[in-house]
Amino acid sequence: MILRKPFLFSFILALVPGLLPAQPAPQPAQPAVFGYSDFTAESRIEEKFLAVPDAQLAGQHLKILTAEPHLAATPEDRKTAEYVARQFRLAGLETEIVPYRVLMNQPIVVRVEAYDADGKLLMSGPTREHVEGDPFQDDPRVVMPFNGSSGSGDVTGEAVYANYGRREDFDQLAAQHIDLHGKIVIARYGSNFRGVKVYIAEQRGAAGVLLYSDPQDDGYFKGDAYPNGPWRPETGVQRGSVQFLFKYSGDPETPGVASTLDLPDSARIPGDKSGNQPRIISIPLSYHDAAPILQALKGLGVPHGWQGALPFRYHLGPGGVTVRLVSRQDYQRRIIWDVIGKIKGAEFPDEWVIAGNHRDAWVYGAVDPSSGTAAMLESVHGVGALLKQGWRPKRTIVFCSWDAEEEGLIGSTEWVEKHARALDRAVAYFNTDVAVSGPDFSAAAVPSLKQYLRELTRSVPSPQGGTVYDQWKKSRPGNDEQRASNAPPDAGEEVHIGDLGSGSDFTPFLQHAGVPATDISSGGPYGVYHSVFDNYAWYTQNADPHFLYLQEMARVLGLEALRIADADVLPYDYVAYAGAIDSYIAAAKRKALDANLNSLDFGPAQAAAARLDAAAQKARLRQIAPSGDLARLNLALRQAETALLSETGLPNRPWYRHIIYAPGEFTGYAAVVIPGVNEAIDARNPELATQQLTVLVQALDRAARTLNSVQ
Ligand SMILES: [Zn+2]
Question: Is 405 a residue of the active site?
Answer without folding.
Answer: yes
